[in-house]
Specification:
By secondary structure, the chain is an alpha+beta fold. The chain has a single domain, classed as Cytochrome p450 (Orthogonal Bundle). The protein is built from 15 helices and 15 strands. The strands form 5 sheets. It has a 5-stranded mixed beta sheet. The chain is globular. The relative contact order is 0.18. Bound molecules: protoporphyrin IX containing FE. The site of protoporphyrin IX containing FE has 25 residues, from helix 10, helix 11 and helix 15. Its cofactor is heme. GO terms for molecular function: heme binding; iron ion binding; monooxygenase activity; oxidoreductase activity, acting on paired donors, with incorporation or reduction of molecular oxygen. Belongs to the cytochrome P450 family. Keywords: Heme, Iron, Metal-binding, Monooxygenase, Oxidoreductase.
């Protein structure tokens, strides 16, 4: 990726060529380790400017200390979430809700949505999540001694939970997996086409639920009120689209990184298989070591931050993978310790936008690992194959072929 111009206000000594997209290990690489590649930033300054750390024509400031990231993410008045990432791919301008709203509007929608993804609601969904995990894994076990975990398990599992959550039947699973893949990993033609299809689908579903209400998420959204009024079509769309994009790649990638780690570390794999009570704590450590989201904010005013002259409109990156490997925050941050206690990791972000789906995500990951380890014997990366890891806005993994022959 070519570097973007460095704005005049950025002092040359604050520019680094480190990027979560293009630094070694960040571009799709067989057996690459984009999480380990971030370790070099902690030895440097608390903030630097990278001209190639973005996709849309501008570089970003990169915050390298977990404690400073928390300051940025807590301060929505100075660092805004107001962007239209999804809509701009379609040449439109509407926010994904609540992700791309700032207070006070953010709080209004967040309070509306909180109960729908509360621990209680997730507990109700749990039997369906487990049933789906078992079904997919049994199918894999019955069909041989090897599989592509991302294609055969992680993606269909995450998409299926999304369908259940929206109250939709399973038979459209493959269609949705296709849309999600095109949206997240398609080229310049497939990505906007998938975005358009998803918007049309959400609009259509909302119209259907308006006409014929049932007991599901979308019916609640079209019937509910905020500040004494019903939601506009654009607000309904902004919520539906966010629920679609927020929980697919993230959960699938987390399961992929976890199983890749266990495939390479047979002792830990055996420990969790023989003592499944350890899985929930282990999953937290794997979320710490292999988080997936690079959070970005836009400065709303000129700010001097740790000596950096951030100007209104500048992008500021708070990468969870940088926070989670900060040695000031975690002892031996590059070592995976499945029994790590007091694990205050940043995988789900921080501040008002902290992940709304974290309870659901955690249950999906833990149940996925529990059922996988209960049904698949000792597994490794298949000889002659290499999983492809990559950095970016959302870190991911492809071609994870496991073998238990
Ligand atoms: C391992 C899986 C997941 C990870 C690592 C993750 C991570 C994150 C992070 C870091 C944020 C904060 C973004 C920001 O501050 O700009 C976020 C926000 C959000 N996530 Fe997740 N997420 C995951 C799964 C899910 C799931 C399953 C759902 C829902 C179905 C979900 C729904 C949301 C929503 C709605 C927001 C916006 C919250 C707000 O703006 O108030 N996430 N997520």
């Amino acid at each position: 990726m070519a570097a973007n111009p460095v704005p005049d206000h950025v002092p040359p000594e604050m520019v680094r060529d480190f990027s979560l997209f293009t630094s070694p290990g960040m571009a799709p690489t067989p057996n690459g380790d984009p999480h380990a590649a971030v370790a070099c930033v902690h030895a440097g300054p608390p903030i630097f400017y990278s001209p190639c750390n973005t996709r849309d024509g501008r570089g970003t400031w990169v915050i390298t200390r977990a404690t400073d990231q928390r300051r940025v993410l807590q301060d929505a008045e100075s660092f805004s979430s107001h962007r239209s990432i999804f809509a701009s791919a379609l040449g439109e301008k509407w926010p994904m809700i609540p992700l791309e709203l700032d207070p006070p509007a953010h709080g209004v929608f967040r309070s509306l949505l909180n109960p729908l993804l509360s621990p209680k609601r997730v507990t109700e969904l749990e039997p369906a999540i487990r049933e789906r995990a078992i079904m997919l894994i049994k199918r894999i076990a019955a069909s041989g001694t090897s599989c592509d975990v991302m294609k055969d398990f992680a993606f269909p599992f995450a998409v299926n939970i999304f369908l259940r959550f929206l109250g939709l039947p399973d038979h459209r699973l493959d269609t949705f997996v296709g849309w999600a893949k095109d949206l997240l990993h398609g080229d310049d033609v497939r990505r906007p086409a998938a975005a358009r299809t998803i918007v049309a689908f959400i609009d259509e579903l909302a119209a259907m639920r308006c006409k014929e209400p049932v007991d599901d998420f979308m019916t609640f959204i079209v019937q509910t009120q905020v500040e004494g009024r019903q939601l506009t079509d654009e607000e309904v769309r902004g919520i539906g689209v966010l629920i679609f994009v927020a929980g697919l790649d993230t959960v699938a990638a987390a399961i992929g990184f976890d199983l890749a780690y266990l495939a390479r570390n047979l002792k830990d794999q055996e420990l969790l298989r023989s003592e499944p009570d350890r899985i929930a704590l282990a999953a937290e450590e794997l979320l710490r070591a292999y988080p997936t989201v690079q959070i970005t904010r836009v400065a709303t005013k000129d700010i001097d931050f740790e000596g950096a002259p951030i100007r209104k409109g500048d992008y500021v990156s708070c990468a969870t993978m940088i926070a989670n490997r900060d040695p000031a925050e975690f002892e031996s941050p590059n070592t995976v310790d499945l029994a790590r206690e007091g694990n205050r990791h940043a995988a789900f972000g921080y501040g008002p936008h902290r992940c709304l789906g974290s309870h659901l995500a955690r249950r999906e990951i833990v149940i996925g690992l529990e059922e996988w380890l209960a049904r698949i014997p000792a597994f490794r990366i298949k000889k002659g194959t290499a999983p492809i890891n990559y950095g970016g806005h959302v870190f991911g993994i492809e071609n994870l072929i496991l073998d238990w022959s």
